[in-house]
């Protein structure tokens, strides 16, 4: 069984009221509806971006917690951190800052 599309058959299909209604509905749902396919796609993209941000911040939180535990558990690490980040020094030391 071979289907052939003649100009007359295509014209009948395009003029058919059901076909016109389906096409108009499809265009409306795709572009103009409050929950259109385009807005759904954009929403999914935004969700993916936010999920990546959540993963990034969870990793940052875990890294910070590990660093905090390390600083609280060892006085040598705490002293090293204070010297490097806050330029703290002992009474008999001098600090020289070299800017490149």
Account of the 3D structure:
The protein is mostly helical. It has one domain (9-86). 74% of the residues lie in helices and 0% in strands. The protein is built from 4 helices and no strands. The chain has helices at residues 7-15, 17-32, 37-73, 75-86. The longest helix has 37 residues, at 37-73. The chain is rod-shaped. It starts with 6 loop residues before the first helix and ends in a 14-residue tail after the last helix. The mean pLDDT is 85.
Question: How is the topology of this model organized?
Answer:
Elements: H1 7-15, H2 17-32, H3 37-73, H4 75-86
Helix pairs in contact: 3-4
Structural class: mainly alpha
**Beginning-to-end CA distance, first to last residue:** 81 Å
Oligomer: single chain
The biggest sheet, with number of strands, parallel, antiparallel or mixed sense and barrel status, is:
none
Average predicted confidence as pLDDT: 85
Number of strands: 0
How much of the residues is beta strand, in percent?
A: under 5%
Over the alpha carbons, how many angstroms does the gyration radius reach?
A: 33 Å
**Shape annotation:** rod-shaped
Q: What is the total domain count?
A: 1
Helical percentage: over 70%
Annotation field: number of helices? 4
The poorly predicted ranges are none
Listing every helix as H and every strand as E from the N terminus to the C terminus, the arrangement reads HHHH
